[in-house]
Specification:
Blueprint lengths: L3 H96 L16 H78 L3 H7 L5 H5 L12 E3 L7 E3 H18 L4 E4 L4 H10 L17 E5 L8 H9 L5 E2 L13 E4 L5
Helix pairs in contact: 1-2
Length: 346
Amino acid sequence: MPNPRSAALTAVFLVMATLSSHTADAAASGRADTLESLRREASKARDQLEKATGQMKSRQKDLAASQLKLRGTLKDLAGAEAELNRIREPLARLANSSYQQSGAAGSMSIFGGGDPGQALRSTADVTLLARSQQALVDRADELQDRRKRLASTAQDLQSRNAVEQTRLQQEVDGLKNKSAELTKQLNAMLDKLAVSRQRRLELGCDKSLVADARKFPNGLIPAKYLCALPQKGGHKLRADAALAFYKLNAAYKRRFGRDMCVRDAYRSLSEQHAVYASRPGFAAVPGTSNHGKGQALDLCGGVQNSGSLQFNWMEAHAGTYGWIHPAWAYSSPFEPWHWEYGTENE
């Protein structure tokens, strides 16, 4: 006959186990929701920073154009000043000559005594001098007005540019502060959640960037469409390849106790040219390498040696994570270190 006490204890245990399971599921669900919320916030922050950066660059272009206009204005102003300085001496000489004409008292001397012919000649001389002087005076007045306008324009441009430079610097500082604050907040949330390094990398690598990355020519993918690898050296891959590599790297680390050794990953077009120049006929023609698509790796740490423990492990396990050692790399040329993500399926 069953023991009622044992049956009761069993029932209590089952209820507690069920509740514990529901609690764990709820906690896991809450954790996933928090991580997804974190991803959304990071993506939102990225979009905001990209928009603000675009506006800042537009302001920089406007400021550069205004500075160019200011330089042209100052150059014109210097030219007006130089021309005004050149005509000051002729003006002074003409003025002095008009006062030193012998027997002439201006145009009124024709009505005075003395030789009428001399008076007429004197009057003609004075008239000619007056006309020449008037032309110089008019030009001097024109230059003075131009100088004033240019000086006013230059002063206005300098003031506006100074204000714009201050505003631009404030925007730059604002972007820096915002980025730093967001980084601090996101890291704090990650620390609070005790998120692993791999999860951090995954959260920072948005798979939606893959479609945009494919639009760019080989070797010309902008950095923002690539994801960083945990290894030192600043290596990057296309988002889908990077996400698969994080998992491959974690499995490798569980087996060998260390991260995979990466010698090369995404390779820009200029880098492809440099490699081809050093290994013509062996390296891929620049613009055709899968390194330029962000989906190829050159590995070290033992993997580069065919038949090594590390190479054999890669052959056995890399395919699980979408990575392959392409057929050509076994013979033409023989490159045991070269691995690619999904290329034979694309």
